[in-house]
Design goal:
Blueprint lengths: L2 E8 L10 E4 L4 E5 L6 H13 L15 H4 L3 E11 L5 E12 L5 E5 L3 E4 L10 E4 L2 H12 L3 H8 L13 H12 L1 H80 L1 H29 L8 H77 L12 H77 L3 H29 L1 H29 L2 H37 L8 H65 L6 H22 L3 H14 L11 H17 L2 H107 L9 H216 L4 H52 L3 H55 L7 E9 L6 E10 L2 E4 L6 H19 L5 E5 L7 H17 L6 E6 L2 H9 L5 E7 L5 E7 L2
Parallel strand pairs: 3-13, 3-14, 12-13
Antiparallel strand pairs: 1-2, 1-4, 4-5, 5-6, 5-7, 7-8, 9-10, 10-11, 14-15
Length: 1309
Amino acid sequence: MACLNKLAIRGIRSFDDKQLAVIEFFTPVTVIVGHNGSGKTTIIECLKYAATGDHPPNSRGVAFVHDPKMANEKEVKAQVRLRFVAANGQRMFVMRNLSVKMKKTGGMGLETLEGVLGVSDNTDRGNKRGTISTKCAAMNLEIPQLFGVSKAVLENVIFCHQEESYWPLSEPALLKKKFDDIFEATKYTKALDNIKTLRKDRVAELKAEKERLSSLSLEKAHADKLRTRMSDMTSNIAAKEIERDQLTERYNIVVAANAKFLETATKFRETFVKVEALEEKKKRYQEELDSARENFQEIAGTDEELANRLKNYNDHISERKRTRVKFDSKRQDLEEEIATQRAAHMKKVSEHGQLAAEAKAHEEVLREREEAIRELSTKHQLMGYDYSPLEREKIIEFITRLTDLQRAQNNETDALQSEQKSKSETYNAQLRRLHAEVERFKQQKDNLRERQATLQRGVVKADREVDAAEALTSKQKNIETDIAEKERRIQLVKDEIKAAKIEENLGEKAVKARALEAKVAELSGEIQSLNTQGSTRTRLDISRSNLTKTETEVRNLVEINNATFRALVGSDARPETMERELNRVAQEKERELADCEDSADRASRNLQAVEASISELKNQLRKKSEDVRSYDITIKRGLEETGTGAVTAHGAITEAEEEVNVRKEEIDQNTGSSKVYQGFLKIGKTQKRCPLCARDMNTDVMTTFEKNVHEGIQKSSAESIRTANEELDEWQTELKRLKQLGEIASARETITSKDIPGLQAQLKEKEKQLPDVTAKATETSKSVASLRQDISKISSLQEIARLVSREHGSLQQLKTDISNLEASLISTGSTKTVEEVQGEVDDIKAEQKTLERERQTLMAEKDRLQTNLRGFENDLHALQLNLSEVKNQLSHKMQAEQRIGEMKQELTDISATLKDLGTKIAEADVPIQRLEQEHSQADRELTAKIAKAQRASQELNMSVDKLESLNKTIERQVYVRGKRARLLSECAQKIEELDSEIMELNGKVEETRVEISGIDREISEGGAFVGNLRENMRVRKLIKDIAATQAEIATYDLDEAAKAKRIFDEKYAVEKQKETDLHAECSHVDGELSSLRVQLKTIEADFKEFKDISKRYRDQLIKVKLSDMANNDLEKYAKALDNAIMKYHSLKMEEVNDTMRHLWNKTYQGTDIDGIKIGSDSEGGATKRSYNYRVVMTKDNVEMDMRGRCSAGQKMLASIIIRLALADSFGQNCGILALDEPTNALDLENIDALAASLIDIINERKGHNFQLIVITHDENFLRKLGQSEVMEYYWRVSRDSRQKSVVERHRFG
């Protein structure tokens, strides 16, 4: 069994970083005592850190190491060494190192250094240490195994930190995690999940393997079929090959016979072929001869003469061609020279035309300027310029006079424009003054109208308020009746409280309880007086120390919470009245909260009502809009179906009614008129006269008459009338449908004109109310939240106040105890024995418990009556508020009626004032209109003058600009004019010279062309002569060839050849057909053979894909069977492991709960809890089971969750007992258990009982290498343990002069 030997600490929290602090752990118990803040808990933290490598909870890493600032160092190195005996009995040691360095930024950084885990003594190594590992991760895994427990047991059971000591009563999720880690359920469930996952994966793989086996089975069956087909195919190929060989042999015989017969018939065939070729050759020669004779002239002479003439003619023609080339080269040279001269001629002609155009343009500009001067002189009445040509001086004079005239006209125009501007400014100033006066009157009128509208709205609003307040009188009476009823009930409850005399009974019980307490105190003092003098002094020292500590705690609590208390209560906190004042303020806040919640509920209901109304109105609007859209679609479709082009339904109805009336008139007119028309026709034809007007009719008129009468007869026929009736029915049906459409249109009009505007007005009114209602609801909600926050703060302070009151009571008790102890030191003692006095104390305590139960009953009855009284008082307060509100509303009603009268009087005054302002505005408009008329008349006259002057100025400006433009053009041409005249004459002379040269060159070119033409004609005629000569020679050769061919044809015997051909034609075709049939049959058999071979190759290729298919199928079948068996085994393993986990869990839980029940009954001194246990509820079903844990307490066989229902002392005691039970069950290989401040929140009785239980546990396990480590500041608890003779030494932790933690060993007693 594992146990601890020594612990060395350096540089951890308040322990010095320069030297080690060493603690040796005793067996069976090691007690470490010290004041708060001395460093006791640091020892547990170091043990946990050495064993698990985890830092303390809620602590940053650097906070675990001694602060470098306190050590005046830049780096502090910390070290924890632990020597222990492993579960296997081997002595081990572990060393962990940390380092904290100051950063340049002012912060601190933590670094975990390498540690050492090794064997402390090893006889095989000569008693030297052997290192196992220096890696922190490896050490974290190895050390829990050496202790013989899991890491979870080390953290949560053996070395549990003080801040986590209540973990058994933590929230369910955290509790489940803790217990799962302790039970190592995660490891086993992971193993179970892995098995199940493996089986699931293997089942999926098995399914795939079975699919693969099925596929291989199909492939094997297919391979067997292919094998059978291959065998059948091979047999068929062998039979076809035999058949092919037989047919080939027959075919070869027939082919040989036909070849021999064909060879016999080849001779006559060759004769016929040769004769046919000769005939064809002869025919071709004859055709060529006939063609040649058509296009040639026969030349006399022998063939030799014709050949000589053809040979010499070629030399002559070559000489003439060379001569032609010379003349052609000369012609080209002449033509090039002509082209050069013509280009020069064209250039000169172009230059001459340009010069002539410039001269003409200059003359035209001069003429245009003189015409302009004459025109302008006439226009502007400047005499003396009507002759031509004008001298330069005259022109300059005219320009000067015209410019002066222009300047004078421009000055006149400017003067008129200045006059108009001045008059406009004067007019605008007067008009602005008059308009300002009118606008002042209008503004007064608008202000009065706005005030009138405001007053009218105020009257309407006040009327609504008055109407709404009509029912307030009856409501006031109802509320007053309810208030009277509530006051009566409150009086009844008060009478009941008074009659019950609860306070008197409680006072009597309190007096009796104090008497019993005094008696108990007296007996306790008597017991204490029986103790030795040393024991009395020890208790006196402890009481004084506790008195000082308690006073400090009370003072600190009051000072820390005084600011919050002052903000809530309004005065400073005092320990003796703090709880009472907070209870009073809490009641006031709760009443205020109830009122605010009522107001918030009303505001919320109002808001919901307004929002619901808005939502309903929007829904109605949306529905109405949808109805309008639906009606529009229906009307549109109906009008489209009508096809009349009507835009509205009512228009379509009018058109349909007109169509119906027209059809009815036509039917009425045409019904029965057929006989009348026939009578008219008969009279007209017989008498040649119109039966209506008695006018005679000629042939043309008669034709027209007959046509019209026939049309009338046609319209009045039965068929026409039936057609008209059908059309009438159709239009009547259409009219009925359109009237239905008209009803829809009317409904749409009603919705758009009445329903939707009404809903929109209601929606606008509701939306106008929404901001006020929302603001009121938000304000009341904020008030409720603020009050709840204050009540929450008061509740938190009440807990502290109860603690302060309890501690304050403890102070008084301690002061009394100290006085008693000091008196007992002087007294002489008592004659009774300790057992007799203790018996009397037990009897009195039993009587105290009975008295306490009676007091609790009275308090419950008092609370019930007080609750009823508060409820009635709250209802009364609410009714009084409602009554006050109703009275306020009635007051508002009277004020509203008074306001209505005042506003109506003001409206009357405003109406009279508006009439006066209307008259003033009308009178003020008269001068404005008169001024506008005068200004308009003057402005029109002046504008006309200005326009006339501007036109004159514009004309003069245009005249001056035109003349200046012409002068500039002429000035630019003055210098060029004299030079251009000379160039023009030179250019004309050069053109004449070039014309004569070109004529001379043209004559030379024409002579050369004549020579070339003669040579060409000679050459051309020579080609025709040569062609005719050659044709004569070809004709003579063709005649000779025809004769030779005819002679060769005559040499062959055609009769014998014809006879042989006839025999060949009769027999060869039959034999050849037989050969063809045999060849076709052979080819067919070859084709079948080829197809069979291809199929065989295909089958063989397919069969290759199924190579070793039988072996693969057999291997797959074996694999599937083995996988199926393995999956069944995995299922069995999973079930066995699951059952084992359940069994292990149930056994362990039963063991833990038995230990807890035993320890609780032995330790807990109260009567409200019979026992505690850990409840584990299974969830998740059989496939994935997990457990939810909870700590429950039992009372009268009723189980209740302990979380949230127990006091701090019960929580501490339950947590210690649960850890003891878990250590007993899960720490069988590790006899270590550390308890940090186990007496926190426990009363004296339970502290004594806890000490007794621990002593019993220590005595039971004393021989089993058991180690209990207790850290406490309670000297009484230390003394209880020391008096049981379970320890000889204990350790005391304190601070030295440098405020460093030091550890010292002390002998008990």
